[in-house]
Amino acid sequence: TLLQLRPKDQRYRLQHVANLVEEGQPERAMPHIQMLTTRTGIEYAAAHCWLARQAVSGDPTFELEPDQIEGHLLRAVELNPRDTEARQLLAAVLKARGQLRPAEKHLFDIVDQHPEVALDLAQIMMQLKRPQNSIDDMAQRAADYTLEQIQTNPRNARARIQRSEALIILGQLQEAEHNLVEGATDQRTPEVVNALSTYYVDLAARRMQESTLNREIAKGLVERALRLSAANRRALAVAVTLSGYGLTVDPAALQPAIDELQQADDLPPGDQLLLVQSVLLYGACMLPVRITTLPIATAAVVLIPVQDKVGEIVASKTRAKNA
After folding, report:
1. Which of 167, 190, 204, 258 is geometrically suited to a Cys-Cys bond with 176, CB 3.0 to 4.6 A?
2. Is the dihedral of CA 191, 197, 203, 205 positive or negative?
3. Within 10 A of 113 (CB to CB), how many other CB atoms are there?
4. What pLDDT does residue 155 have?
């Protein structure tokens, strides 16, 4: 192999590590990655970054503690200050740990050469309450960059979603909506459809925060969100909130969301409570239902109004639980 021919070549050794992991031989890969991430003659910045990247993935081969992940990325940047991947990943790790100022600095160092980080930077700047003109400048850079990506590939769902996020920061809400609607209508990209649903829920919550007089507007936005994505739990939660203001969300929009909740396996307590509230507030007659995993009690019997199909679903689940 190339590694045998050039045992001191860091690139070949790291590729050998990746190959062994892919082949399901992590125990053979371990000595090599340790060699590349120990302060020896062949320590390699890219190996530190590789180890940290796999650790934050959904299914890491080598599990690391948060401090270890941060340490590997800091060392990668120390060894190679121009390692933009390490800086970007380090910024994400620092942001997740609440260390916003160092995260901001790492992104500032690379944003001129890598405008794809401009949106992350703008969001961090918002959290740090930087001057609005500086935030707007960074958000505009993000909007311009993502527009170029969309023009190159209109099916680029990630770019379309990020462009709308940047436009929302800029206060260009209609343009943000148009951008998502265009993607959802023309390509029917699932990610864009879900993002548009989330956009409507966020806008509904914003309108309600501005004034409760906007509740009719909020109701319409929630109905649009639910029609786009029955799995949008936040939309269903806002529908429950609106019922407290005497507003009734269209049952045709609610039914698929309630169906989706009812048919899901192993609902967490919060979602079970949301299901109970939804049927309680939008039903008509009464039916006892046993919910056994609510956080407020080991087993609580609640009276739930049910109507038509909703009643059938809840009754069916009740029988299954009692069987």
Report:
1. 167
2. negative
3. 9
4. 86
Q: Which residues pair with 286 in a beta bridge?
A: 305
Tens digits of per-residue pLDDT, 230-254?
999 999 999 988 888 888 888 888 8
The half-sphere exposure of 39 on its side-chain side, counting CA atoms within 13 A, is 5
Q: Three-state DSSP class for 102?
A: helix
- C-alpha 84 chain-centroid distance: 22
Give the separation between CA 44 and CA 11, rounded to whole angstroms: 8
CB-based contact 126:169 (threshold 8 Å): yes
Q: Report the alpha-carbon distance of residue 37 to residue 51 in Å, rounded.
A: 9
No. of H helices and E strands in the chain?
Answer: 17, 2
In whole angstroms, what separates CA 17 from the centre of its chain?
Answer: 30
Instruction: Specify which residues 285 forms β-bridges with.
Output: 306
Tokens of 80: 């190679």
pLDDT tens figures, 295-308: 443 334 444 444 44
* CA–CA dist 158, 261 (Å, integer): 27
Both tokens assigned to 176: 């943000």
In this structure, the chain runs to a length of: 323
Q: What is the DSSP letter of 266?
A: S
Residue 302, beta-bridge partner list: 289
DSSP state of 87: H
Token digits of residue 318:
């009740």
One-letter amino acid for residue 314 of the chain: V
d(CA 242, CA 201): 12
Q: How far apart are CA 144 and CA 308, in angstroms?
A: 50
Q: Note the pTM of the prediction, 2 decimals.
A: 0.70
